[in-house]
C-alpha cells in the first residue's frame, strides 16, 4: 500500500507510522529521515538542503520533493511506502500526484489522525525532559515522575522544553491548520482520505488504523 499519514503535532504520527509500516511491510519514509540521510551521505540534494538550512532559510519544496521521489524509487518501496511529514502543503501534494502518475502508480489512502486541539496541547505541553539525558521523558498527566521535577531514572532535573510550551504548541497548530490541513481536502476530493480518532492507547490506535485501511482497500 502507498499511504500518506497526516495529523496535527502531538497526534502520534511518528509512533503510528513505525507500527503501521511494520504491519504493512512497507518502508516508513519521514521528512526528517530524508534530510538526515541526504545530508550525512553528502548527496547533491543533501548539500543543497544544508546550504539553505545553514543560512537559516526553509528548504524549498522542489528539494524536499526530489528527496522524496528518490527515496520512493528505492527497491524496498516497490510494493508501497508510508509517507510521514510529506507532503506538508498542497503544492507538495500536487507534485507528489504528478510524480506518482509519471511512475504509473497512485496512492491507496491518506490516513488522517484526528485529535482535539486541547488534547494536543495537553500531550505536548505536559512533557518534561531530564536535563541529564533527553531520552528520559515524563508527562505530568500520563506518566508523571514519582517526585515532581525529578527524573526517576537518574535524579536529574526535569524541565519543559521551549518547543513544548503551550504558546509554541498553539503556534505550531496554527501553522498546521494553515499549511498542512488543506491537503486533506485535496485528497478527499480524490476519495482517498480515511479519518480515525488518535485517542487511546498506541495499540488501540494502530488497530483502528489497520481496520480502516483494510475497509478502504476492500471498498
TrEMBL record:
Residues 30-59 are annotated as: NMP. GO terms for molecular function: AMP kinase activity; ATP binding. It is an enzyme of class 2 (transferase). It comes from the Bacteria. Keywords: ATP-binding, Cytoplasm, Kinase, Nucleotide biosynthesis, Nucleotide-binding, Transferase. Pathway: Purine metabolism; AMP biosynthesis via salvage pathway; AMP from ADP: step 1/1. Residues 127-163 form the Adenylate kinase active site lid domain. It is found in: Cytoplasm. Transmembrane segments: none annotated. The keyword Transferase applies. Its EC number is 2.7.4.3. It catalyses: AMP + ATP = 2 ADP. Catalyzes the reversible transfer of the terminal phosphate group between ATP and AMP. Plays an important role in cellular energy homeostasis and in adenine nucleotide metabolism. Consists of three domains, a large central CORE domain and two small peripheral domains, NMPbind and LID, which undergo movements during catalysis. The LID domain closes over the site of phosphoryl transfer upon ATP binding. Assembling and dissambling the active center during each catalytic cycle provides an effective means to prevent ATP hydrolysis. Belongs to the adenylate kinase family. This is Adenylate kinase. It comes from Streptomyces scopuliridis RB72.
Amino acid at each position: 500500500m502507498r499511504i500518506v499519514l497526516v495529523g496535527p503535532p502531538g497526534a502520534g504520527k511518528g509512533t503510528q507510522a513505525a507500527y503501521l509500516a511494520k504491519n504493512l511491510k512497507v518502508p516508513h519514509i519521514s521528512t526528517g529521515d530524508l534530510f538526515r540521510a541526504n545530508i550525512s551521505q553528502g548527496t547533491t540534494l543533501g548539500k543543497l538542503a544544508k546550504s539553505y538550512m545553514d543560512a537559516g532559510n526553509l528548504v524549498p519544496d522542489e528539494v524536499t520533493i526530489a528527496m522524496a521521489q528518490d527515496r520512493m524509487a528505492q527497491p524496498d518501496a516497490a510494493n508501497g511506502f508510508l509517507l510521514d511529514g510529506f507532503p506538508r502543503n498542497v503544492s507538495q501534494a500536487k507534485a507528489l500526484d504528478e510524480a506518482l502518475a509519471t511512475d504509473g502508480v497512485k496512492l491507496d489512502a491518506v490516513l488522517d489522525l484526528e485529535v482535539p486541539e486541547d488534547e494536543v496541547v495537553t500531550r505536548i505541553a505536559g512533557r518534561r525532559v531530564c536535563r541529564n539525558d533527553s531520552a528520559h521523558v515524563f508527562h505530568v498527566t500520563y506518566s508523571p515522575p514519582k517526585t515532581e521535577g525529578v527524573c526517576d531514572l537518574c535524579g536529574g532535573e526535569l524541565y519543559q522544553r521551549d518547543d513544548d510550551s503551550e504558546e509554541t504548541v498553539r503556534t505550531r497548530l496554527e501553522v498546521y491548520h494553515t499549511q498542512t490541513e488543506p491537503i486533506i481536502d485535496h485528497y478527499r476530493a480524490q476519495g482517498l482520505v480515511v479519518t480515525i480518532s488518535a485517542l487511546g492507547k498506541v495499540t488501540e490506535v494502530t488497530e483502528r488504523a489497520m481496520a480502516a485501511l483494510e475497509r478502504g482497500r476492500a471498498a
